[in-house]
Amino acid sequence: MDAKSPFDSTVYADVIICSSDSVNFYVIRSLLCCVSLPLRDMFQLNRGPAIEHNVMKDGLPVIDFAENSETLYLLLTLLYPRGEEPGLDDCSLFWRVGKAAQKYCMDVIEAKLQRLIRSSTLMQSEPLRMYAILVNLGWNEIASLAAQNTLATPLEKLVGVNELREISGADYYTFLEYRLRCSKSAKPENERLIRPSGILPLLYSVDTAPPQVEGLEKSGLPMHSKEPFDSSARADAILRSSDSVDFFVLESILRISSPVFEDTFSANRARNSGIETNDKLPVVPVEERSETLRQLLLLIYPYDDESIIHDVVLFSNVAVAARKYKMSAVEKKLQRQLVGSPLLSKEPLQVYTRAVSLGFKEAAELAAKSMLSQELQDMTYVKGLDHITGMDLHHLLEYRFKCGDAALMVWEMVDKRELFDSEYGRSSYNRTSMNYWTSRRYDTLDKSTAEKLKARPRGSTITEFDDQLVQKIAEIPEMSDRYHDGILRAEAVCKFLKSLQRIAAEVEDEVSKVPLVVDGDTDVELPQAASGTR
């Protein structure tokens, strides 16, 4: 079918572009060529002898575009001279047109879109969605305006949007850090987004974007690896790392451990290829660096002491290599290692980012829980955020707030009298003993503990010995005349601490029931792929 006016059949058109949903747009070739070098090249390919291979309609060549008709209509409307400029009232359409303008290098259209979106109602009605889209387009200055428009919504009320899957966790961290800074600022309207240095494009596919890019390098003459993979090792093959370190290995162990190495060695043997060294052993170059390759081999070989990796980035590189070579047994070993690793408490955010990118859900859950011991304000940027999506980090934020709600629910159900009054709960308890002074202490304890639990929803928050807890213990003997006896005072303090421990255990139990959402594959309407010709 033909597009609606002004892109329907007209005597001025000299080419037809066909959308992905088979709508024909009659356009003026020279106008498109003026604003887009890629389109100029595309049209050049459809002239001369090549025109014979085109589908023709009404005597005009038809060229396929990957964009749908809705996207092309707005793109062309912005390009053609018209009295009224179109309104922008659809986030997804705006995004698709922006990506198309970038694909075809239409700087004029990009400038128009940037001007129009500033005054669009979308910036107010869909600020988080627009932030993600604008960051995805690389329009960070306008993204700051969208971020500012989210300030009216508390962080715990922000609902995740699909577009967060198309920006990196580092980009979302930039937004989160801005929001936290605004919450402490006397003039939040003066705050601006501050992007951590070195933020990379979104790299969340572990198969295509390993945490540390490794490849073949030129490092001069090869060196021998250290034991147990040096030249003295029993070996019938050599693996050469990308930084030119030779590992003397047994081919049979690699074949058993990896179907990829099985195919590699079989192919080399079939064509009798492979580089011969002075040791007369075939050399197989690999893309991994020596430190990664060494740890991988240590996990394959049957040694009594299993190699433990204490560096998050190295761990991630080894896991990526294990997946690349289809070493399922090694992947399982690595998952078990990470679940019991001290890295969970030392570098929980790093572990979370790597575990999410690798699909290690149990480790991601443990890392997320470990992060609850620190306040959100204390979360600092780590490079691993480049390898997860903004939605992955948003899920972590939602998890924290849900844990805070669960912890507060436990605390709100506690009768605070049992903490201070050793007689409470006994048949002889005198209810009139709860005077105004005592009630005020309960209120103070309730408020201060609730605030701490919201910031750090863990059982340890209840029992940690800080100045407030010491003050509460010091106040216990003063709450009633019957505490003049030293033994009674000691009993009261013990009861107070035991009650806190019980409440802490209940908090931990409820927090443990909160699920962490780990993102899976989700269908998001993305800008279309490159176009072709019929």
Automatic annotation (TrEMBL):
It holds the Pfam family BTB. Residues 13-121, 235-342 form the BTB domain. InterPro entries: BTB/POZ_dom, SKP1/BTB/POZ_sf. This is BTB domain-containing protein. Transmembrane segments: none annotated. The lineage of its organism: Eukaryota, Fungi, Dikarya, Basidiomycota, Agaricomycotina. It comes from the Eukaryota.
